[in-house]
Design a protein that fits this description.
The structure is a single chain. By secondary structure, the protein is an alpha/beta fold. It has helices spanning 16-25, 43-48, 66-74, 96-104, 126-143, 159-163, 174-184, 209-224, 235-256; strands spanning 3-9, 30-37, 56-60, 81-84, 110-114, 155-158, 189-193. Strands 3-2-1-4-6-5-7 form a seven-stranded mixed beta sheet, with helices on both faces. The chain starts with a strand and ends with a helix.
Length: 258
């Protein structure tokens, strides 16, 4: 199975070359799809120098958001498995083999890399750690799931599943949106421990408390209001659909004299 690595990038001139090198070094069949989301710090110029055989590089003319960059990349993926990779060196591509294994072995369709399940991982600030745990608790309560790290960057999906979620996200709300829509479909989320080397706000960390509040709203919204395709039909609804289908067949058979 080929792994499609989506790398959304915004103002990461200091780290973009190194994260590409690290991803390339992983011994797995893979492709890179890099989307620059309107960078202004020289990242775009660095990406334009990347040889075509390294990966597909796409550009947004202005900054739209991480979710929008991921949606742009999804139009170009060809691998059976898709992973999201931030460009800031917080997450280690050497974890890819362990992350893809459950999907390759057929025991999972969705895998999250959990920073919490590796107790020796540091965290950049207590509020980021507690915010992540809070989002996980809220997701678990709302959707009846059991995950430890909802806002993790490392989320892997079968390509057809991810492309079928009808994503609407533009920013960091990609994470709660996919969590909510996967959970509504009743698809288990498998977690694998991963390494984590957090950076500080001074070093360029972009997530703020406002993103956390918006993530909570997205989790709540999709619990009660969602696209029709995200809902699992209830038994009663399924029976009604079966009865209507049977009546349509009867009417059709009566008209044709069968």
């Amino acid at each position: 199975m080929k792994l499609s690595v989506i790398i959304p990038v915004y103002n990461e001139a200091a780290t973009i070359a190194e994260i590409i090198r690290r991803v390339e070094a992983v011994q797995l069949p893979k492709e890179l799809i890099i989307v620059d989301d309107g960078s202004t710090d020289g990242t775009r110029e660095l990406l334009r120098e990347i040889p075509p055989d390294v990966g597909t590089v796409l550009f947004h003319e202005r900054n739209v958001g991480k979710g929008a960059a991921i949606r742009t990349a999804l139009e170009h993926v060809t691998g059976e498995i898709v992973i999201i990779q931030d460009a800031d060196l917080e997450y280690d591509p050497n974890d890819y083999p362990a992350l893809v294994r459950p999907i390759v072995e057929g025991t999972a369709q969705v895998v999250y890399g959990s920073r919490v399940l590796r107790p020796d991982n540091p965290y950049s600030h207590l509020r980021f750690y507690l915010g992540g745990r809070l989002l996980s608790v809220i997701a678990n309560l709302l959707y009846g799931i059991r995950i430890t790290d909802e806002p993790t960057c490392y989320k892997l999906f079968r390509r057809e599943l991810l492309k079928g979620l009808n994503l609407q996200c533009r920013g960091f709300e990609f994470c709660p949106e996919v969590t909510a829509k996967v959970a509504r479909r009743g698809i288990p989320i498998h977690e694998v421990p991963i390494r984590y080397a957090p950076r500080t706000i001074d070093e360029g960390k972009k997530v703020s408390w406002k993103n956390g509040l918006y993530a909570i709203w997205i989790l709540v919204k999709y619990r009660f209001v969602a696209d029709e395709g995200d809902r699992r039909p209830s038994r009663a609804r399924a029976r009604r659909q079966a009865v209507r289908a049977s009546k349509r067949r009867s009417r059709r058979d009566g008209r044709t004299g069968i």
